[in-house]
């Protein structure tokens, strides 16, 4: 089979490799689409962010199959211990793989396992025609979802966790700083949780128009101070919950105009700031400023969390899109054909504004036609 193989940061090739055989707890997937993440592209380019150590360690051992944790695939073979997936199921991977041995795992708190295995970083991902993955990390999806939507589902599963951890209550005022993929998703989910109004800020007028169509209140950050605008709309109080969904390179969390500082400025006293975006490097903050407003700075844990007997956030994310309660297709704007397009897809994803892309690029791996 063909797969993307990374030789160093920024160096790659498509090569013929052995098709994997699933073990007892794995399934073999035929991959239809892969959606690159911004984090993966930054790591490929050598940036020191989350998972950088894992990627560097694998590259130090020689050429490695890296990346591809957001995908749509079909089960073509399953291990003898797998019972929640069947051959023919289309799946995505909302989960990480807990170690199963630490005190967190043994006491039922697998979501907080400090030794999770991450698809595409610690083990090969889906940048290949086939991949074998632990069934524990996968969830089946409805036939009504397109392959493009399935490949874009993993960020929504993370957004569900962000909103669940935020503690939004019916009637709350919510603000979202940055209307990228997860910002747009968190805003829609906040409305679904019962928020009275959800303000979203961005500098892209098209994203703001799309947000307005979904019942969100857009704020054009190019024409005003978002903090002043949110404060004015809340009678000087601020929002109950603010999501910082920009991430990236920021310098100060409580002073200036960086997105985190905007979130801290827009939240009410006693409110919650939810850190959605990954931050590159370190930020400075005034502990006194955070203490003075009694702000809770929430950093959600990734993975899957139960929502009830036999159900979890991975299942729920797929159901939200299938039912139309949350829309994600507007952010799938660029696709490329074949694994040989990997470098171009990386460039699109890392430089979305240059290409007019709203979300990451998707790579169509096979000729599957469920679009």
From TrEMBL:
Domain of life of the native organism: Archaea
GO MF: adenyl nucleotide binding; anion binding; metal ion binding; oxidoreductase activity, acting on the CH-OH group of donors, NAD or NADP as acceptor
Cofactor(s) of this protein: Zn(2+)
Coiled-coil residues: none
Entry keyword annotation includes DNA damage: no
Domain Alcohol dehydrogenase-like C-terminal: 184-298
GO terms for biological process, alphabetical: protein tetramerization; small molecule metabolic process
Residue span(s) of domain Alcohol dehydrogenase-like N-terminal: 24-141
PROSITE patterns: ADH_ZINC (PS00059)
InterPro entries (UniProt xref): ADH-like_C (IPR013149), ADH-like_N (IPR013154), ADH_Zn_CS (IPR002328), GroES-like_sf (IPR011032), NAD(P)-bd_dom_sf (IPR036291), Zn_alcohol_dh (IPR050129)
Entry keywords, A to Z: Metal-binding, Oxidoreductase, Zinc
Family assignment from sequence similarity: Belongs to the zinc-containing alcohol dehydrogenase family.
Protein name per UniProt: Zinc-binding dehydrogenase
Organism: Halohasta litorea
């Amino acid at each position: 089979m063909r797969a993307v193989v990374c030789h160093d940061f920024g160096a790659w090739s498509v090569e013929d490799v052995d098709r994997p055989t699933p073990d007892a707890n794995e399934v073999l997937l035929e991959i239809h689409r892969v959606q690159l993440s911004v984090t993966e592209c930054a790591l490929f380019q050598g940036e020191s962010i989350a998972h950088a150590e894992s990627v560097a360690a694998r590259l130090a051992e020689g050429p490695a199959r890296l990346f591809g944790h957001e995908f749509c695939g079909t089960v073509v073979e399953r291990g003898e211990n797998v019972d929640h997936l069947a051959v023919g199921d289309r799946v995505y991977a909302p989960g990480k793989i807990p170690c199963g041995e630490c005190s967190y795992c043994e006491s039922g708190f697998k979501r907080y396992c400090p030794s999770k295995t991450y698809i595409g970083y610690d083990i090969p991902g889906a940048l290949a025609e086939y991949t074998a993955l632990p069934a524990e990390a996968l969830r089946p999806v409805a036939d009504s979802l397109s392959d493009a939507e399935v490949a874009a589902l993993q960020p929504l599963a993370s957004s569900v966790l962000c909103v669940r951890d935020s503690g939004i209550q019916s009637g709350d005022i919510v603000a979202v700083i940055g209307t990228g993929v997860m910002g747009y998703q968190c805003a829609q989910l906040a409305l679904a949780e019962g928020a009275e109004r959800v303000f979203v800020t961005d500098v892209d007028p098209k994203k703001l128009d799309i947000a307005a169509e979904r019942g969100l209140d857009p704020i054009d950050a190019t024409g005003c101070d978002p903090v002043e605008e949110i404060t004015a709309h809340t009678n000087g109080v601020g929002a109950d919950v603010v999501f910082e969904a920009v991430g990236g390179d920021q310098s100060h969390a409580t002073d200036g105009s960086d997105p985190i500082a905007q979130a801290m400025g827009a939240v009410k006293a006693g409110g919650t700031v939810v850190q959605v975006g990954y931050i590159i490097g370190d930020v400075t903050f005034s502990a006194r400023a955070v203490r003075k407003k009694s702000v809770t700075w929430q950093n959600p844990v990734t993975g899957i969390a139960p929502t009830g007997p036999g159900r979890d956030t991975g299942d729920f994310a797929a159901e939200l899109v299938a039912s139309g309660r949350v829309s994600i297709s507007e952010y799938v704007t660029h696709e490329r054909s074949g694994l040989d397009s990997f470098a171009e897809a990386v460039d699109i994803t890392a430089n979305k504004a240059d290409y007019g892309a709203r979300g990451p690029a998707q790579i169509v791996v096979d000729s599957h036609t469920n679009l």
